[in-house]
């Protein structure tokens, strides 16, 4: 990274989409209010974030909005007392939200469950009481090795309610990944399920847990949710059924009073760039950041059905499946299974069935569904949709336009958001009343000061790529790296005074940001520094290509050359002629500097279980080197 120069810009995207007049008129934040918010945030960012905090309830107000005396260990809303569950559940029970749907859940086989705020509140209280009776106390870590079930959300909220620190481990991870996280977190309690449904089959979970717990006596208690109804072995001294421990608990429980900076959860990074780290988020600043950004970016209305397709095991699931929708008093939807089961219209079926109004998903999912064309979406009534969103990695302009036109009917703006596990909240995003450029994440939100710089911290010229940095702290930011404060400091030491995101980006003449990939995925071809995102976007623009990944491989003459790995759309056959056509297509789209040395067709691209392409795994396969941590590798 220390050799990073300005990245060249090859992709030219000139299409601009304006919001419909009706949407602007009905928006919660109109253009004039948005301009005033930017002015306040630039002039007095602490006043801006204090206003956001005042939209929530606190047991005790803060002495100071931000304590930066021990930077980069920033503390937000110092000496305030709060609990995120009070704002996500307790306060709604005293309002008209009490009988509003909080959660709609659909299982892969088609079974559904719906919980009002009152019903969810009582379920969380029962689980909170059960955890206390099992000996879990404030500050204890509780690991959840859980699929997307209502009990997953209930357990997360119950932990937070009693002051325990939850640590979600994605249910698709291997036993080794679970073991490593149990050890690092020092967990006393583990919550899991017998199994779950995925892609038409039952995936057992409890046997993997038993194998791990036999190797190390890591936890005192293991709570098992009965989902799949499969036979599992229960160890009497350690294992208890979820249904048994909550059955006789009271539906009321005390909400623990927490310091604003008390830990809420640990979440381990996705491992795309190396060994996972336990990112720590706290109650106070985190709830302010996610509540504010959900309301502003997605223009939340009382009647919305909000579907973020992320698994609760990822930061997107934590922030915008569980906590932010409940803080906002809206209805959140959770789906257990695979988006292609039993066929490629499952997402559109769910959207139509439940009247989803906001759909927030990943570029990977969008490109995957694009492979099957427009027939499946046209078979379903998607007119309930009024807003779309993208998250997780850069979205190719062609995928953006397909999403906007085919799914959104040309009426639903696409909120292409940039943020990270470490940031906790959306940082850069369009707003519903703003202009949209396909493939751009638009501009930093009010209160977020982002820049694009070279390795010395100096700003790079417009339309040149550089390191994306955040120059001032923000409420939803991580508080530490668990057991590793030096790893936390490292985020702020590469360029003193800035948080270095590890992504490369450029800013165009209108101030719009364009993500170009990870800083360690830049390709240097004969002195031309190229970002992978632009190369891949050009490939996906070809009619035959569904997904693409580009890596740099060593070359004696040019230093590096680009190699593309491509998956094809449904019905397209691979051939030498097509490979040649794709090479010519790249040159036409981006110029001769973007020459592809070779194209390799694949059925699938290696991805993390959150859907991000693992380019370093492709590179390791190509060069015969060690790939590093692959615990996050998707296995379908």
TrEMBL record:
Residues 534-612 form the AMP-binding enzyme C-terminal domain. It comes from the Bacteria. CDD domains: ACS. Its EC number is 6.2.1.1. The keyword Ligase applies. GO terms for cellular component: cytosol. GO terms for biological process: acetyl-CoA biosynthetic process from acetate. InterPro entries: Ac_CoA_lig, ACAS_N, AMP-bd_C, AMP-bd_C_sf, AMP-binding_CS, AMP-dep_synth/lig_dom, ANL_N_sf. This is Acetate--CoA ligase. It comes from Alkalidesulfovibrio alkalitolerans DSM 16529.
């Amino acid at each position: 990274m220390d050799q990073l120069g300005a990245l060249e810009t090859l992709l030219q995207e000139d299409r601009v989409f304006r919001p419909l007049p009706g949407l602007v008129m009905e928006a919660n934040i109109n253009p004039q209010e948005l301009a005033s918010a930017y002015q306040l945030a630039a002039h007095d960012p602490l006043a801006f974030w204090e206003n956001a905090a005042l939209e929530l309830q606190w047991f005790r107000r803060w002495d100071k909005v931000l304590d930066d005396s021990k930077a980069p260990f920033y503390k937000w809303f110092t000496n305030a007392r709060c609990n995120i569950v009070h704002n996500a559940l307790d306060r709604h029970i005293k309002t008209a939200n009490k009988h509003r749907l909080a959660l709609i859940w659909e299982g892969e086989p088609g079974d559904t469950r719906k919980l009002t705020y009152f019903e969810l509140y009582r379920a969380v209280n029962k689980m909170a009481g059960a955890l206390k009776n099992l000996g879990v106390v404030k500050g204890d870590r509780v690991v959840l090795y859980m699929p997307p079930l209502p009990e997953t959300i209930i357990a997360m909220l119950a932990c937070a309610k009693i002051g325990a620190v939850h640590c979600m481990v994605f249910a698709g991870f291997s036993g080794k990944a679970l073991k490593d996280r149990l050890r690092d977190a020092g967990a006393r309690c583990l919550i899991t399920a017998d199994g779950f449904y995925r892609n038409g089959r039952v995936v057992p979970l409890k046997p993997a847990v038993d194998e791990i717990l036999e190797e190390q006596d890591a936890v005192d208690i293991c709570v098992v949710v009965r989902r799949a109804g499969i036979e599992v072995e229960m160890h009497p001294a350690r294992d208890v059924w979820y249904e048994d421990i909550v059955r006789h608990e009271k539906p009321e429980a005390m909400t623990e009073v927490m310091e604003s900076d008390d830990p809420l959860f640990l979440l381990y990074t996705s491992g795309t760039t190396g060994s996972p780290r336990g990112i720590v988020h706290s109650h106070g600043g985190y709830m302010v950041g996610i509540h504010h950004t959900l309301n502003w970016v997605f223009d939340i209305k009382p009647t919305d059905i909000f579907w973020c397709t992320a698994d609760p095991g990822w930061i997107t699931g934590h922030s915008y499946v569980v906590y932010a929708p409940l803080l906002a008093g809206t209805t959140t939807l959770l789906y257990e299974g695979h988006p292609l089961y039993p066929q490629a219209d499952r997402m559109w079926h769910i959207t139509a069935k439940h009247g989803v109004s906001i759909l927030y998903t990943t570029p990977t999912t969008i490109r995957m569904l694009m492979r099957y064309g427009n027939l499946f979406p046209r078979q379903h009534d998607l007119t309930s949709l009024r807003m779309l969103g993208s998250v997780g990695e850069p979205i190719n302009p062609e995928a953006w336009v397909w999403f906007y036109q085919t799914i959104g009917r040309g009426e639903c703006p696409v909120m292409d958001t940039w943020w990270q596990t470490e940031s906790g909240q959306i940082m850069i995003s369009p707003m519903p009343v703003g202009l949209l450029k396909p493939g751009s994440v638009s501009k930093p939100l009010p209160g977020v000061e982002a820049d694009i710089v070279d390795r010395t911290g100096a700003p790079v010229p417009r339309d040149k790529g550089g390191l994306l940095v955040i120059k001032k702290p923000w409420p939803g930011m991580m508080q530490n790296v668990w057991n590793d404060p030096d790893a936390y400091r490292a985020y702020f030491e590469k360029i003193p005074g800035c948080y270095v995101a590890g992504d490369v980006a450029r800013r165009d003449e209108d101030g719009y940001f364009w993500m170009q990939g990870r800083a360690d995925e830049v390709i240097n071809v004969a002195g031309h520094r190229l970002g992978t995102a632009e190369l891949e976007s050009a490939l996906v623009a070809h009619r035959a290509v569904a997904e693409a990944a580009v890596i740099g491989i060593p070359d004696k003459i040019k230093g590096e050359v680009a190699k593309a790995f491509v998956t094809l759309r449904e019905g397209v056959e691979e051939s030498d002629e097509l490979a040649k056509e794709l090479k010519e297509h790249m040159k036409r789209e981006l110029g001769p500097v973007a020459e592809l040395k070779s194209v390799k067709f694949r059925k699938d691209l290696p991805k993390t279980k959150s859907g991000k392409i693992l380019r370093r795994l492709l590179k390791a396969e190509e060069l015969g080197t060690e790939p590093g941590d692959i615990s996050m590798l998707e296995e379908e």
